[in-house]
């Protein structure tokens, strides 16, 4: 054997040592909530996904453009 692969650097284990910042707020992530720092941020991320699929912020897409023009503009 040439290279003895030892599972010394288990990324899962050394997560605490080199905790990556929470992708939501940038705070150090918590092991239990990885990769987030708290359940709140995990929720935010979750809602981002769900929100992007289900509930899109009210956007004027279908504007009923069937009104008298120049009704009250100056
Ligand atoms: Zn966070």
From TrEMBL:
Q: What does this protein do?
A: Inhibits all the catalytic activities of DNA gyrase by preventing its interaction with DNA. Acts by binding directly to the C-terminal domain of GyrB, which probably disrupts DNA binding by the gyrase.
Going by the UniProt record, its keywords in alphabetical order are: Metal-binding, Zinc
Its assembly, as annotated, is: Interacts with GyrB.
Give the protein family. Belongs to the DNA gyrase inhibitor YacG family.
Q: What is the lineage of its organism?
A: Bacteria, Pseudomonadati, Pseudomonadota, Alphaproteobacteria, Hyphomicrobiales
Q: InterPro entries recorded for this chain?
A: DNA_gyrase_inhibitor_YacG (IPR005584), Znf_NHR/GATA (IPR013088)
Q: Where is the composition biased (Basic and acidic residues)?
A: 1-15
Name the coenzymes or cofactors required.
Answer: Zn(2+)
Give a yes or no for keyword Zinc in this entry: yes
Q: Which Gene3D superfamilies match?
A: Erythroid Transcription Factor GATA-1, subunit A
- Identify this protein by name: DNA gyrase inhibitor YacG
- Extract the ranges annotated as region (Disordered): 1-22
């Amino acid at each position: 054997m040439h290279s003895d692969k030892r599972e010394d650097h288990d990324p899962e284990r050394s997560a605490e040592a080199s905790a990556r910042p929470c992708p939501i707020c940038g705070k150090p992530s918590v092991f239990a909530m990885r990769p987030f720092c708290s359940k709140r941020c995990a929720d935010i991320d979750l809602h981002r996904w769900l929100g992007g699929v289900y509930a899109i912020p009210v956007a004027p897409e279908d504007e009923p453009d069937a009104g008298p023009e120049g009704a009250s503009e100056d």
